[in-house]
Amino acid sequence: MDKLITIFWLAGESSGDLHCELIMKALAKDGKRYHHVGIGGPKMQAQGLKPLFPFDRFAVMGFVEVLAHLGFFLKVEQSIKRLFEEAKPDLVILADYPGLNLRIAHLADEFRIPVLYYIVPQFWAWKHERVFKIKANVNHAACILPFEEELLTIHNIACTYVGHPIAEEIEHKMDRDAFAKFFHLNPNKKWLGFFPGSRNSEAKKMLPTFLKAAKTWDQKEYEILVSKSHGVNHQLFMDMVSGTGMPNLNIIDGYNYDMMQHCDALVCTSGTVTLEAAYIGTPSVICYKANPLSYLIGKHLIRVSRIGLPNIILDNDVLPELVQHDMSAHNINAKLREIIPGSPRRDVILLELRKLRAMLSDKKPSVEMPKIIEQMLITYG
User: Fold this and answer.
1) Residue 119 in domain
2) What pLDDT, on a 0 to 100 scale, did the predictor assign at position 377?
3) 3-class DSSP string for the chain
4) How far apart are CA 171 and CA 347, in angstroms?
5) Residue 134 is assigned to a structural domain of this protein
6) Are 59 and 37 within one domain?
7) Statement to judge: residues 240 and 113 lie in one domain
8) pLDDT reported for residue 290
9) Straight-line distance from the first to the last Cα atom of the chain, in angstroms, rounded to the nearest whole number
């Protein structure tokens, strides 16, 4: 019988949970026996991950917010250290989530456990010193943005560009007419979509301003679609949208990719959702608002002039961005008018988004990652 291979995974966010699910599914087809343990969400757990802690405890962002949860993260670290001591895994795979994952990479290195970092920290944007931590503690880095491979190679870090997971994850369930029927939308109107974020903290900061912006669009001409993420507390979300008095307001629970494809333009909280929308080809206004103290600290550390991943990858101000105090209802609507059908900039934006799609589609993580995993198990086994 084949040896049981133990892989420790750490994905602290919903996006990481989704990205790692793809890899676990691919591994399940290679005929080997795997034991998966660590931190991951419902998708990874459905693929056999034995979770060490409740997944929702890890949805924390920002300097101030992380400080408030420091006790929990120290407890997690101690628990993982015990696991590495008592039941040493064959491989550690860390996905994104750098605040904790770089500390765990250091721990794994101390116990001589090989580390594969999937979706490396955005050291090129801020906290550049993280590249030295990757070099010191990570055996192989799998990057998902085309330019990262060259930047890591400059630092003599073993790395592979594996393609972006969204190229494999995005699928559409319904055409526009079926979507309209399912959600009781008028297919003859224009549709504007709002994505206020996948965490409670994001929704609290973004949704009130988004709704204020949405309210000014003529209900005879526009349907307003607001995405409700599974990661956002239902009661919290409904409390914020109740009392808006908008007959054209439609809450879309799930169906993100269909909503992105069928809307004429979008307003998105900065994050993976902006890249998904760009990959699908729908122009969006990218918005970001942080805790004021977190923003002040971050502002002094950030090395790039853009926040939106599509703009960073294309190295061009293709999609409009509104950050912190600039993110007002008035400014959102002004930028929306620049990207809706009939606006002069729209055709240029659509052409750039097609370029982006081609750049991110040339490799598939579910094909490339198992090759790296197999090679590492042979090399360090």
Assistant:
1) yes
2) 96
3) CCCEEEEEEEECCHHHHHHHHHHHHHHCCCCCEEEEEEECCHHHHHCCCEECCCHHHHCCCCHHHHHHCHHHHHHHHHHHHHHHHHCCCCEEEEECCHHHHHHHHHHHHHCCCCEEEECCCCCCCECCCHHHHHHHHCCEEEECCCCHHHHHHHCCCCEEECCCCHHHHCCCCCCHHHHHHHCCCCCCCEEEEEECCCCHHHHHHHHHHHHHHHCCCCCCCEEEEEEECCCCCHHHHHHHHCCCCCCCEEEEECCHHHHHHHCCEEEEECCHHHHHHHHHCCCEEEEECCCHHHHHHHHCCECCCCCCHHHHHHCCCCCCEEEHHHCCHHHHHHHHHHHCCCCCCHHHHHHHHHHHHHHHCCCCHHHHHHHHHHHHHHHHC
4) 24
5) yes
6) yes
7) no
8) 72
9) 17
Does 170 fall in a domain? no
Whether residues 235 and 272 share a domain: the answer is yes
Give the model confidence (pLDDT) of 312-349 as tens digits: 999 999 999 999 889 999 999 999 999 999 998 999 99
pLDDT at 296: 53
How confident is the model at residue 42, as a pLDDT? 96
> Does residue 38 sit within a domain?
yes
| Number of domains forming the structure of the chain | 2
- Name the nearest CA neighbour of 288 among 265, 308, 264: 308
How sure is the predictor about 381, in pLDDT bands with cuts at 50, 70 and 90?
confident
* Contact assessment for residue 205 and residue 236, using Cβ atoms and an 8 Å cutoff: no
* Cα 228 to Cα 273: distance, rounded to the nearest angstrom: 13
- Looking at the fold, whether 374 and 247 belong to one and the same domain comes out as no
If you average pLDDT over every residue of the chain, what do you get? 91
Which domain covers residue 212, as residue numbers?
A: 176-360
Looking at residue 19, its amino acid is: H
